[in-house]
């Protein structure tokens, strides 16, 4: 694939994956607002429609699309995401100052805004043609995704009905393990650049993969139970699927890192 096609392919892949995620965040926020919050419901619906149109536009392009068109699509997506991010931060402020009560947890709103900020950063890197050095990417992505995964375990644990005792314990255990891994990754972040040897980074990837695979399996069980109406919870079926897709995204990234590290020079 030539450089231009690679840029188009990467951009469309990012915009389609994260664009759908942003659209679903808007939907989850909308579902969390109460009937006496029509303005917020309207704003959330606006973002849902906005990201739906971006998604539709992005699937209309092929890998042979003109580079300039994709640069524009990326910019438009960046704008939309930055507005969604600002909306989420505003909602968080309203919740924490007790101006509104919604059914979305503050950590969920913060979490969604962190994913928006991450997406904006990815688009910016793509459009500017910046490629983060592999050792930095391994640490940064682990710090970002382990926190996201740990949040998911906490959301599941808190959205389960209190009578689902065993599953709540399982979710809390996963959350604890992921927190430990996250702190380890943060420690390695502080030890840079000394911590960026092939062996140290490989172990980080291995340990993350092991626990994230367990989380993935747990999420898949939860998703199936929600879909088959076998679970007592307030988990929306789309949220169960959404969290599973994000875990898959992290697992794919870990595979890519492992492959690149194995291909690179040994130290
Ligand atoms: Fe998400
Ligand atoms: Fe998430």
Automatic annotation (TrEMBL):
Protein name per Swiss-Prot or TrEMBL: DUF2935 domain-containing protein
InterPro entries: CotB-like (IPR021328)
Pfam family membership, one: DUF2935
Organism: Aneurinibacillus migulanus
Top-level taxon of the source organism: Bacteria
